[in-house]
Amino acid sequence: MAGPMKKRELQSNIENEHEDDEENMEDSGDEAPDAIKNKGMEITVDFEGRSPQDPDHPGIKTLLQQLFLKSHVNLSDLTDLIISQNYVGSVIKQSLDDAASDDEDDNVDDVFGITTVINISERQNTPECVKELRTLLKHLISEHATDSTKTLIENVLEKDSASLGLLINERFVNIPPLISVPLLENLASEIKRAISKNMAFNFTHLLLICKLYKTSEDNQKKKGKRKSNTEESNLLWSNPEEELFADEAICSFEFSVEKQTDNGLSGSWTEDDFEMVPYRKVMLFESSKLEQMIDKIKTQI
What we know:
The protein has 301 residues and is an alpha+beta fold. The longest helix has 27 residues, at 2-28. The chain has ten helices and ten strands.
């Protein structure tokens, strides 16, 4: 079955990468990449990638909610679509000790991340949730994109000669960016297999929606900071590897989602801290660049 094979490949890749990084971390004094630090305590957790299954529905939907917030997209239906095409994409789950008893498997259904792709080009029998994604995208580019960016994305979205995939790369904040490498590698391989079977995954372009956090302009003024000198230092990517995608983007635009959230980046703030405001950045790039970007992540993350 595809699920177990995916599990073994991903686990092997993560373990090999972690062995190298743990040696480097020991030399530098930093914590290992697979350790989650919580209130001064380190909890080591092993993760693995699996094909999305029905029990993963609540976890996947929760991850989609933190990306799309209050957008008018039926996330339950979108989750169903992701699970129905589980031959493409992976969920991140905690590795379970084969010797563990059933009583100890309370967290077996927890989902810590999802990496997949959805065909959002208009075609026959397009699911309603995909139509909602297209409507959302058109609204966003109308409200926030420059004229040139709007034209580029609309051309890809509307032309029959183009095929657009929405790349979903979502996980909880404590999951290290290193895990994105085997997940994206698996996704690229699965897309190739799907294309060889004449499935609708032969994309010309991919679209990625990233989560960003920026220092609020009010806080910058209070601290006497000039935006031009602090723009880079006051920008935080939720998934650090996605910053590398920006280098290959044909076009992009961003917008604040502060009004769609209860607060900015969570945490304990002091008087000297800059409060971070949540943003979304939408990037369009050629699908042929995916493997090149994965290689870049390998060398720079």
